[in-house]
Design a protein that fits this description.
Elements lengths: L8 E2 L11 E6 L2 E6 L10 H16 L5 E6 L10 H5 L3 H21 L4 E5 L2 E3 L1 H8 L2 E5 L3 E3 L10 H10 L2 H10 L3 E2 H7 L4 E3 L4 H13 L3 H14 L4 H16 L2 H11 L10
Parallel strand pairs: 3-4, 4-5, 5-7, 6-8, 7-10
Antiparallel strand pairs: 1-2, 2-3, 8-9
Helix pairs in contact: 1-3, 3-4, 4-5, 5-6, 9-10
């Protein structure tokens, strides 16, 4: 976990890192958000989801940040929704609000201009697995474990299903959802849920390498490309090509595209302006 100063802590009304349920640390264009409910395996309480949403809203307007890393403290990445909190909830209105809040948070990750990398250790289950599937890239330690186990407690992982079914093949997603059985990091890598499974001691370094490589690119190009990726993937083939052609035309007219092409021709490093 990245070192964070007290001024970087994000919390529900507190200034102490020990009490903050979400931490943020920025360095060289990379923002690291750390889920910080270790005793609860970083379960997504309504409070934590609110803090993540607020942090994502801040990142959207922060042009100094080119890429974000989402990590977690303690023994696991995220155990899903806070079931104790949910059992204390009362009725349909409450549950609708919780799941809509979670869906807004997941959509905010997808719609964030900056790419988001999940750095996963320990468990990532239910909505925690959804969080991994939602992030643009994911790196996990070899000992990480992924599951959508809701079926085991009578609660099908329907909202995690949305992200999972878009990240992996249908049969694989249905196997996880219907059996509730977990998979290890090597399997998650083979099925495309994560990009790489790495030794625990290499997790920080390799995740940072991904982030630094992405941060070296034009922020405008990253924004254009990420938005286009998620829009075209839901289109039919012809519509996707028409849309992508328009995107490339707009991109080609950008100053960063001109600079990048000129730098390539002149065999020098480009100087991005984000325009």
């Amino acid at each position: 976990m990245s070192a964070v100063s007290a001024s970087d802590a994000v919390s529900n009304g507190t200034a102490s890192n020990d009490e903050a349920i979400l931490l943020r640390s920025d360095s060289d264009g990379i923002a690291t958000l750390t889920l910080n409910r270790p005793k609860q395996y970083n379960a997504l309480s309504t409070g934590l989801m609110s803090e993540v949403q607020a942090a994502l809203d801040d990142l959207r307007e922060d042009h100094s940040v080119k890429v974000a890393i989402l990590e977690a403290s303690g023994k696991g990445f995220c155990a899903g929704h806070d079931l104790k909190e949910m059992r204390a909830g009362d009725g349909r209105t409450y549950f609708e609000a919780v799941f809509k809040q979670c869906s807004r948070m997941m959509l905010a990750i997808t719609r964030l201009p900056q790419p988001v990398i999940a750095k996963v250790h320990g468990i990532a289950t239910a909505a925690g697995c959804q969080l991994v599937a939602t992030c643009d890239l994911a790196v996990a330690s070899n000992d990480a474990h992924f599951a959508t186990p809701g079926v085991n407690i009578g609660l099908f992982c329907s909202t995690p299903m949305v992200a999972l079914s878009r990240a992996v093949g249908r049969k694989t997603a249905m196997e996880m959802l219907l059996t509730g059985e977990g998979i290890d990091a090597a399997t998650a890598e083979r099925m495309g849920l994560i990009n790489r499974a790495v030794p625990p001691g290499e997790l920080d370094r390799i995740t940072l390498e991904y982030a630094e490589k992405i941060a070296s690119k034009s922020p405008l190009t990253l924004k254009i490309g990420k938005e286009a990726f998620y829009r075209q993937i839901e289109m039919d083939l012809e519509q996707a090509y028409n849309y992508a052609s328009e995107v490339m035309t707009t991109n080609m007219l950008a100053r960063d595209a001109e600079e990048g092409i000129d730098a390539f021709i002149e065999k020098r490093d480009p100087k991005w302006t984000g325009e």
